[in-house]
Here is the input.
Amino acid sequence: MKKNIKNTKLIVKLSVKGILFLFLLGIGLFTVSCRKSHPISENTPLQNPSEIPEYRPGANIYTPIVHQKFYKGERELLGYHPQFTPNTISFDPQNRPYIRTTDGFVQTLDENGKWVKFDFKPFLKKAFPAWNDDLAVGPFAEERIVFDSAGDAYMHAFLSRSTKPCSVLMRSRDGCRTWETYVLPLPYWCNIEAEMPAIERNEPPCLSLFMNNDLFILLPKKLPDGTLQIPAPIKISDISLVGPAHSGGGGITRTFQGFTFVVFAGKIPHSGEEGTPQYITRYDHATGKVSTPVYLGSNGQEEPDGHNCPSMEIDSKGYLHVLLGSHHDPFKYIHSLKPFDISSWSKPEWSGIQKTKMGEGSYTYVGLCMDKFDTLHVIARWGGDGYKDRLVYFCKKDGQSWEPMKVLVEPYKTRYSVWYHKVSRDRDGRLFVSYYYYGNELTSEQLTAYLEKWPEEKEKFKIPEELKDSPNGIFMNAIKYHDPCLLVSNDGGGSWRLALTEDLRGGITPEKVGSLEKSVNTVGMPFVKIPSGRFIMGSVEGAQDEKPLHAVTISRSFNIGVYPVRVKDFEEFVKATGYKTEFETAPKKSIFAWLKGKYKNDDASIVSWRSPGISQNGDHPVVLITIKDAKAFCDWLSQKEGRHYRLPTEAEWEYACRGGTNTSYSFGNSAKDLPAYAWFKKNSPTGTQPVGMLQPNPFGLYDMHGNVWEYCEDFYGPYSDLPVVDPLLKVDSEFGPIIRGGSWIDDKYGDYASQGFNLRSASRYHVYYPRIMLDWVGFRVVMEE
Here is the structure.
């Protein structure tokens, strides 16, 4: 089978709007004759998701989102009314979402997928009885929640108007329900280090503390009794600038392999250079020493500016990546030339769109994160092209150049705007951006429209006298930010849309897979009962047809075969019915054959499922059958057993294969462990192997990775990134049925570094010739409840 067939263009192409329209109506490509597949509505119960659509049918829920005059945004134009309050989002080790609200609560999803809120203010009140309940909240507060590998949650709280201003580290060991409080030695601005993808760290996060122009880091430690030790702060610099904490949210510290790296902006020009100097230093945990700051470069114009704060990430190989911050200038990108080393750096290069005109706006507020594939993702405000401050995105894949910028959201007006944006990632590789729109440089007309939309603010708003004679508008700090939103990208930044609750439900993985019900039918085929649930289908690391990721709900439990159908199982069927396979009855000239990894059409006349040309006995998976043969086997079992047997849907297959995991394989991310779980080219180069010989997945299923590819009920087609329930693509296509799991011939192509690529949980392929003889494709069956 030709490997480049995946790149063949589909005959029928659906536009994004077309796909959305079909999903909302419950018809079209993803409609099932006997079982519905439909998008999830934000405002309706899961069991009846199509009564009230989340968005108006036909509305463009994907970016770019363009606001309209006056203050018509996501809610007015798109009907976006999420069940949760969007803000900086974090994910625990089970990929459960947590969002802190500006009124002192933490939101998350319970075991039933419903939003719940936990009030953390009583724990502050208990620790500080004199506190007057005034908590610094909103875009200028550090509201990110960070989790360690044990599931402990950490967040920062600043008691702004208590008897004495107080900075507090809060820690929860029970999913943000109860909190411990630890007073920090410095009462001012704090930055909390976010988790790193694919790095497990069972320590509290590093904290950055600023006081005047002094920058400190603090490294809390877990004690044997479970409490935290708050050590003395470690001074990094006394010439640092404190940048605006409200937008961007990029990290200034990264802790890895016994070092904490810190980037910061300086308040004194470097050697007479124009702009804001930016530095990096390294703290060695073993020696307790802070290195001399290394100058990285200057960015921005004229005098040092606190807006020009850098942001840093570290990749899986230990190389440091830094964006030098700016205030209406392009960002400069540099990376270290050696792992964990700050002494040598690449030549700075511009990222994003270059500035060309006097008075033109550009980039401000670095929102930087790196995913588990070492791709740098940047969210920023961009004021180019007419000085309209848009929210934008661009990225740089590992070893490649910066990709073109995408506009995410555009305000309705020019002049000053800001988005208070923060970027996050989950454990599936999805990207999230929270934002509020705020624009306080208003004309008289714009202010009038603002107060009409939010009349509750009229009483506390005094209209400046000078506004009458200010056609350019004036800054009015009494303006508030409104209408928080959350964007999600399911394909590594390729496309973005407004996030739904079901997107967040779908990513949750169970903490523990309990014992599952098992059964054996009269043919001796063992089955495992797979519970209903949700998962994120697809992968951002794989082939193009595995994208975008999308939340899938499996609404009903189902029993799936512990093994692929064996030769002896198929033999029982043939003995009972006298059935002959397509390859045994069809004219040999009508058959193609791809055997032992080679095109061997001459062998089509001498092999069959009984003697496929590779060594097999009754316990090997049956091969050399078509999907028609597989369905005939299911029909026979249904009649014989009095229960409905069928092939698994593609979604059921991946859900069962993952076994509650969100890693590349059901056992983790490393292909080095593959020989313990799968038969593939490395450990089975000559053919299939008896089923059940290697380790099972968490659901107790064998040979889900490797041995033979397995037919699914679906035909091959593209994914949508909208959440769906029980998807099944019944529309026939020239690409034929889906096959899943990889086989003993994989990976025939590629080098050692890519071995196991086709055996990942998300890997897809298809059988595009209806009558092609394959000794590396079999099937597994589902027994319905």
